[in-house]
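Ticket reopened. Same input as before:
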Amino acid sequence: MPPSQHAHQGGGHHGSSQGGAPRARHASSINAEEIAHFDALADEWWNPKGPMAPLHAMNPARTDWVKAQVEKHLKPAPSQEQGGQCLHLLDMGCGAGLASERYARLGFDTLGCDASPSALAAARAHLASHPLGRGAGTLHYHHGSAEELAAAGKTFDVVSALEIVEHVNNPAQFIKNLAALVRPGGCVALSTLNRTVKSFLVAKVGAEYVLRMVEKGTHDWRKFITPAELEAMGTQAGLRLVAMSGLNPHGSSWRAGGGVDVNYITLFQKPAP
Amino acid sequence: MTTNPNHPNATSQADTTNATTDFGYRSVPKGEKKTLVKEVFESVAGKYDVMNDLMSLGLHRAWKRDFINLLAPRAGLRLLDLAGGTGDITFGWLKRGGGPAVLSDINAAMLEVGRKRAIDKGLIERVEVCCADAEALPFPDASFDRVSMAFGLRNCTDKLAVLKEARRVLKPGGRFLCLEFSKVTVPALAQIYDVWSFQALPRMGRMVAGDADSYQYLAESIRMFPPQAKLEAMMREAGLERVSHRNLTGGIVAIHSGWRL
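Engineering reply: fixed in the latest deploy. New output:
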């Protein structure tokens, strides 16, 4: 199953960085091991046959599902009621921008945010050589964390965090951070891996050890999250689950639909006042 | 109405002028039964599915499968699953291609288990979860194609009121199906079943759920439930038509069927 696309934010504490270098102001939310892991893969992000191949395969299914569900559930902000304005989307933990670029091409004004400088360098380089073209939204990248953006008072119509939540130290806190970044009436999209016997066999044993689709150690099955657990975390963060779907292989690509026992994607909404 | 423990199938359908009803073999004021039943199911909610397997030696799965077959799920049909608890019937209906379902139960603890299971199965968008009393349903007339009730009717105080409500919310041409413990029709099986219910079950309840009393009540409530013919008569009295029943496993359970025509 897909490795995380990203370097990740989440609550929890980490030791100081190597060599006693000063920690970033919001470093408590960043998992240093995860960043190092995905930093090492920066050059391979955009290789559709490389270690990110599963992510390339599932990317259209995830982003298309998010767009369709946002169109169905998002309550327009007062400024959007006349229509014609692009929705602002934050792709949290964007890595090298696989989802960010696609979101922009789907018409969202997109901000990709990640804590990995090398992944962001790969994202910017790819964008420079692959312009978005007509009809796309804007796309910018930002190095930082969810807390930094929230502290700066940023809010978005849609916050997306795909294949991240299973990598953070404190998923509940991470989801609270995301909830702080979405406006009332807006949506939070989360995709992750379910903690089932099937997901252990498929995503851990199968993908990492048998098929060698992803690097060994990419996933920790114990950190996978059941849909009910994710829903409870969303509720604690003041969000309401409005849509859910399995993400499953379909020939050489993926599709939204079918069982949720391995990969699944959810849409939460922040209630409007 | 005081019930006699020596008549295991004495009806629990209290006369409307009477102020008492059964709670297992005890006679309690009518107003208290809901609270007592609520306490039982709050106590067993977390272990309910495990205990069902132990209580029935896994047979409840086959009984429910037969029950869902009779419900005949189809995409255009809407189901109300009364006393649906942890959701087995609702999920079976949806898995078999049934239309939208309302999972309803008077007990919030049981319903919360069902709601979480619906989320974990990825079915929550197709299930409306509703905490409701089956004796006074919050739904308009003629709003469901199927009404199901599995192992819930015996816990209701006013069973006739439940049956009338089921008929009221059914669309014309809709069907009510009830899966419930009934009167064993095979004498040799009846003796084994008695030993199982009154000796083994409460002990298992103590070991698995830390609660022998609740399982003692469940065993007693089975004995106090109306036998097949009596329940058929009550269904007709409630206005259901083409009423019939089918025994499973020698009458340990029966599926009762009635239509709103």
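Chain A has a mean pLDDT of 81. DSSP finds eight helices and eight strands in chain A. Please confirm and we'll close it.
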